[in-house]
Specification:
Bound molecules: iron/sulfur cluster
Number of domains: 2
CATH superfamily of the largest domain: Hypothetical protein, domain 2
CATH class of the largest domain: Mainly Alpha
Strand content: 5-15%
Structural class: alpha+beta
CATH topology of the largest domain: Endonuclease III, domain 1
Largest sheet: 4 strands, mixed
CATH architecture of the largest domain: Orthogonal Bundle
Order of helices and strands: HHHHHHHHHHHHEEEEEEEH
Number of strands: 7
């Protein structure tokens, strides 16, 4: 069996590289700001989902300075829908750190990049390699899959990461480390896919141990995950007669930190819906919708019962809350789970169409 060579992968990449909005054309210098922003967005999110966000985000914040100087609500709002909101907070903090510590220029080494907020080992490696052509290993899920198959690595991930890193560094070419990093990502995303990898089209089909043994889909080996316990809670959709909805901002730290939401109870595994009235923002006759809204976070599934109510236009919001007019709702940084809650609540509150 021949040993895998970087040149075979690079030759494949030169013919089949994906055109991505954040990727420089062949021979062009990549913009570190775009490379960094795309890598943060792509953490736990697919390329297809990120593409439209990326374009809009870049139009709104065309440079690291624009992003650093933007109010945090604007950044959260531009991020809403991408999920994992701590990434947006870190993104903003990182842009400010680049302005303050590096005069608006991203540092070009893995170590200096890692010292910035929200940049972990993977992102530092990816930015150093792609934006600055540094010989760095950027090991993400795609790269893990390719390397564990190529060498039939039996150790389960994430424990196998140091070994995978070592294998990547051993293969790294001196002259095109940035292209090599992107080629590995592309190979994992388009050929060496989790199911039915297209081994016949793979530039490493000859040296691949898993292919030779017909065990491709069993790699990477994984340690079984414990499923989170479902949490329950109540969410209150309160509409004023003029259509404005009662909202508040979640605390800056923690899950969905800094995002907008309708008032809710605590979310707990043992939440008792019978006592929901005590968690309501105002004492009213609340109507509970028959179907709860379900959402799955990384660590736990959530089931929110939606209660709806209406009040006259003159009603003042309780302390720390606000009424938002329907025309301004799109400007609120509402995460996906809250969009589902608001949509269900408004649908229930809408008067039925009058008979012809
Ligand atoms: S030969 Fe198949 S399993 Fe091996 S690296 Fe290529 S696509 Fe993946």
């Amino acid at each position: 069996m021949t040993a895998p060579a970087a040149t075979d992968l690079l030759a494949w990449y030169d013919r089949h590289r994906r055109a991505l909005p954040w990727r420089a054309e062949a021979g062009e210098r990549p913009d570190p700001y775009r490379v960094w922003a795309s890598e943060i967005m792509l953490q736990q999110t697919t390329v297809t989902a990120v593409k439209p966000y990326f374009e809009r985000f870049m139009a709104r914040f065309p440079s690291v300075r624009h992003l650093a100087e933007a109010p945090s609500e604007e950044v959260m709002q531009a991020w809403a829908g991408l999920g994992y909101y701590s990434r947006a907070r870190n993104l903003h903090a990182c842009a400010q750190a680049v302005m303050e510590r590096h005069d608006g220029r991203f540092p070009d080494t893995e170590d200096a990049l890692r010292a910035l907020p929200g940049i972990g080992a993977y992102t530092a490696g990816a930015v150093a390699a792609i934006a600055f052509d540094r010989p760095s290993a950027a090991v993400d899920g795609n790269v893990e899959r390719v390397m564990t198959r190529l060498f039939a690595i039996e150790e389960a991930v994430p424990g196998a990461r140091p070994l995978i890193r070592e294998k990547v560094l051993a293969l790294l070419p001196k002259d095109r480390p940035g292209d090599f990093a992107q080629a590995l990502m592309d190979l994992g995303a388009t050929i060496c896919t989790p199911r039915n990898p297209a081994c016949g089209l793979c530039p490493w089909r000859e040296p691949c141990v898993a292919r030779a043994e017909g065990t491709q889909e069993s790699f990477p080996r994984k340690t079984p995950k414990k499923a989170g316990v479902t949490r329950y809670g109540a969410a209150f959709v309160l509409a004023r007669a003029d259509g404005a909805i009662l909202l508040r901002t979640r605390p800056a730290k923690g899950l969905l930190g800094g995002m907008a939401e309708v008032p809710t109870s605590e979310w707990r595994a043992d939440y008792e819906l019978d006592g929901a009235a005590q968690d309501a923002p105002l004492p009213l006759r609340w109507r509970r919708l028959p179907e709860p809204v379900r959402h799955v976070f990384t660590h736990f599934p959530l089931e929110l019962s939606v209660l709806v109510g209406s009040v006259p236009t003159a009603t003042e919001p309780p302390p720390g809350m606000r009424f938002t007019a329907p025309t301004r709702l799109a400007e609120e940084p509402l995460p996906s789970v809250m969009l589902k809650v608001v949509e269900a609540g408004l649908k229930a509150l809408r008067p039925p169409p009058s008979a012809p």
